[in-house]
Amino acid sequence: MKVTILGSGTSQGVPIVGCKCPGCTSKNPKDKRLRVSVYIETDIKLNDKPLRILIDTSPDFRQQMLVNNITDIDAVLYTHYHVDHIMGLDDIRQINQLQKKHVELYANRETAQRIRQTFSYIFDENTYKGGGIPVVDLHEIDLEPFDVIGQKVIPLQYMHGPTIVYGFRLCDFAYMTDCNFIPETEYEKLKGLKVLVIDALRYRKHETHFSIEEAIEAAQKINAKQTYFTHMTHDIVHDEANKKLPTHIEFAYDGLKFEI
Known about the structure:
There is one protein chain. The chain is α/β, with parallel strands linked by helices. The chain has one domain: 4-Layer Sandwich (Metallo-beta-lactamase, Chain A), CATH 3.60.15.10. Helix content is 23%, strand content 30%. The strands form two sheets. A seven-stranded mixed β-sheet has the order 6-5-4-3-2-1-14. Strand 7 and strand 8 form a beta hairpin. It is globular, with a radius of gyration of 18 Å.
């Protein structure tokens, strides 16, 4: 399995418009953060190509495809319905046109309902389809493991303030963005991970996200061989902050690639 971090930033991205802080004015490419998303190439073959799974279609999805030369996606897993995780859905139509195929979408019931509402022109049979729209099949999922074109996916349910968010485990990799409370039942699903990517917003506490200290505590409890933090604000200046983290924990950055 090959994983690419397409975006590692919070909902405003980094730099933030109009901000002159050290993080926003940094020249280090690792401090330039698009909204969060992950691209996964599995070892399952479809027509001699790897099965390609995206987690979330951020508002920066088009730019992320261009920067990372992504021209094919088979499925999208949605964590939740917030704007920074769904608003790039319309750009799936370029994949439809290039590959001449539809794309499978997976989301829990509430997220699926919000997607249908937000992108009603895609799902309303009475809407005029001229000009091109995404060609997708939207599947509602629950907490049972499900199959994505041959790849087993284990949903992980946790809290983002009052919002239920789904993370996903694929083999020995798990992705858990937008998180501030993980139920004990979900820790059981996270045993034996090789790589974990988990939410770590900033040093100060936040009502809907893990702080760095809270993320470290959760990561050490999960005890993956390697953990990467994501969804960071401009408070995190990458190289300086990375030095302060425990062994086997690092801040992710846009374009980070690793194999499992």
